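User:
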Amino acid sequence: QLQLVESGGGLVQPGGSLRLSCAASGVTLDYYTIGWFRQAPGKEREGVSCISSSLGSTNYADSVKGRFTISRDSAKNTVYLQLNSLKPEDTAVYYCAAHSGSACTDRQHWYNFWGQGTQVTVSS
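Assistant: Predicted structure:
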């Protein structure tokens, strides 16, 4: 059973950076497509980025392109989301999720494993 654990969230000033981690136990993450999602207060959960299991292709939401970067570290069995140039509107709980297919998608119903989330707050 794949278990995902996010970490790295916190309070940061506008323009600052954070690196979120999505670590797995029990199964090699390389075999899964990993997505990052976020949910802001009063809003629906939305896709942020994903990295595919096969070619390692990546996608980003328009709102984070050029600021966020997703990557894998196979040795650490971890997927990272680097958040740069953070804005107050990036404040949300960030979740990582996994599915065993190769499609890098923001369709949440594709993902059948979810972490518990990590809070990111961007405020001065």
